[in-house]
Amino acid sequence: MSAADKPLSLRERNRMRTRGDILDTAAELLGSEGYGATALEVLSQRAGISRGTIYAHFPGGRDEIVREVYLRIADGVYVRGISLRDALTDPGERITALAFALVEATKEPAGRFYGVMGPDLVSALSGVLGSTSRSFEDLIAQDLKHAQEEGTLPQDAPTGALAAAITGAIRAAGASAAGKPENAEQAVEAVRLLIDGLLVRATV
What we know:
By secondary structure, the chain is mostly helical.
């Protein structure tokens, strides 16, 4: 049995559970109250965990926690988007699947923060901000090139610029779902119509 296959000890499981509780509470607090109001004192009270324990898990304090929350959500959106996209073949559906993955996350209380981040988070998220958007943009460019190969998008269409614009629309859909979760389906549908319209016009 390798070290990777060795079962976690009770202490390690408890440590992971506590870390997860901190991040879960921080995610919901960031979504409901914002970065400025997410003080460690408030987080400690909401999570029922002492500040000392929080610092033991996150020595960097609030900014380290915010960074971990962001990366956890970003990774989840990316993995979900890839999973949905890879099960499809139509370029338009593949692109829409990425929008669905983002909206699915931001409509939930623990993911709302990811859709409504303000300028006060730029320094805390330096170096990682927009990582999933950049990955999605590359994937969308690939799908648009595939559409060109299929003849549903003109050969001279600027796939890079279109991919950037569509990624912006997907981010807007995520923000819309974060602000009004009841409109999540409409946000995805708007992206779907945008893509369908682009490809349909290309074939006319």
